[in-house]
């Protein structure tokens, strides 16, 4: 279990910019994420969510600005502190569920065989794949592969977990199961950062950052963002549109 410290910052992003050739993906983005919560990056495709996560996990380097993970600069040295579930799974189709999760445990430097075996079993059971543990990934449905990807991301018990569109393509029942897992983890002190463009995911998060064109245009709890519209019964979709229109007016 990770010790929870509400005063600690899990992530601090200071005026980070990043471009793909001439396309600016992030534009002096600033963000702070407290430890021990579920934090959603909400925005349309192309808003910069995936690029930001890749910067946070150390797969990309910012063109300017700085990124800190649990008080340290994001680098290979911080890789063991994080779990990462990408949009497209990186599983090995010919290997079984257990073999895939064990492989990732080894990547995360879990060298003690008995401890690794215990953590692999716990992760596979947590995502409800124990009955299919010996099956090769190629025989699994898309939703089951998502479960295995989550097991691979959490097998080393990281204090910080990045999930890029983790519920895309899942049926409603499986989404509920995933969010039950996420809630359990945050109660244990794990910080979860989720990118999504669905309002269902957003509503489950403790805090949200609304993104557009590589910037954070608003941040707060779901209820705070809804109340900011001044509209009774406003939805998160209403809130997102409110902040987009307000930004357009300010830039006019």
Report on this model:
This protein has helices at about 50-55, 95-105, 115-125, 140-155, 170-185, 200-205, 220-225, 235-250; strands spanning about 10-20, 25-35, 40, 65-70, 70-75, 80-85, 160-165, 190-195, 205-210, 215-220. Helix 2 runs parallel beside helix 4 (about 140-155) and helix 3 (about 115-125) packs antiparallel against helix 4 (about 140-155). The strands form 2 sheets. The protein has a 6-stranded mixed sheet with strand order 6-7-8-3-9-10, sandwiched between helices. Strands 2-1-4-5 form a 4-stranded antiparallel sheet, covered by helices on one side. With about 250 residues, the chain is of the alpha/beta class. It has 8 helices and 10 strands.
What attributes characterize this protein structure?
252 residues, alpha/beta, 6-stranded mixed β-sheet, 4-stranded antiparallel β-sheet
Biggest β-sheet: strands ordered side by side in the sheet:
6-7-8-3-9-10
Fraction of residues in β-strands: 25-35%
The DSSP helix count reads 8
Helical/strand content category: alpha/beta
How would you sum up the global shape? Answer: globular
Please provide the ordered H/E string of secondary-structure elements: EEEHEEEHHHEHEHEEHH
Q: Give the beta-strand count.
A: 10
Low-confidence stretches: none
Q: Summarize model confidence as the mean pLDDT.
A: 88
How far apart the termini lie comes to 49 Å
């Amino acid at each position: 279990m990770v010790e929870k410290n509400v005063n600690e910052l899990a992530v601090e992003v200071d005026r980070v910019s990043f471009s793909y050739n001439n396309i600016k993906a992030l534009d002096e983005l600033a963000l702070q994420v407290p430890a021990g919560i579920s934090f959603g990056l909400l925005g349309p495709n192309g808003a910069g969510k995936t690029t930001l996560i890749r910067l946070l996990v150390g797969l990309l380097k910012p063109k300017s600005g700085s990124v800190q993970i649990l008080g340290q600069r994001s680098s290979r040295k911080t890789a063991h502190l994080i779990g990462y579930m990408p949009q497209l799974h990186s599983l090995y189709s010919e290997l079984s569920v257990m073999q895939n999760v064990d492989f990732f445990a080894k990547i995360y430097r879990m060298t003690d065989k008995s401890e690794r075996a215990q953590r692999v079993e716990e992760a596979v059971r947590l995502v409800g794949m124990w009955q299919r543990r010996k099956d090769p990934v190629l025989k699994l449905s898309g939703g089951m592969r998502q479960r295995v990807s989550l097991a691979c991301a959490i097998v080393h018990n990281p204090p910080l977990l990045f999930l890029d569109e983790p519920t895309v393509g899942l049926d409603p029942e499986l989404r509920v199961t995933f969010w039950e897992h996420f809630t359990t983890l945050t109660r244990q002190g794990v910080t979860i950062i989720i990118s999504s463009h669905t309002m269902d995911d957003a509503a489950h998060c403790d805090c949200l950052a609304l993104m557009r064109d590589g910037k954070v245009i608003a941040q707060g709890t779901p209820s705070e963002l809804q109340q900011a519209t001044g509209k009774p019964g406003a939805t998160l979709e209403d809130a997102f549109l409110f902040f987009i229109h307000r930004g357009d007016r300010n830039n006019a």
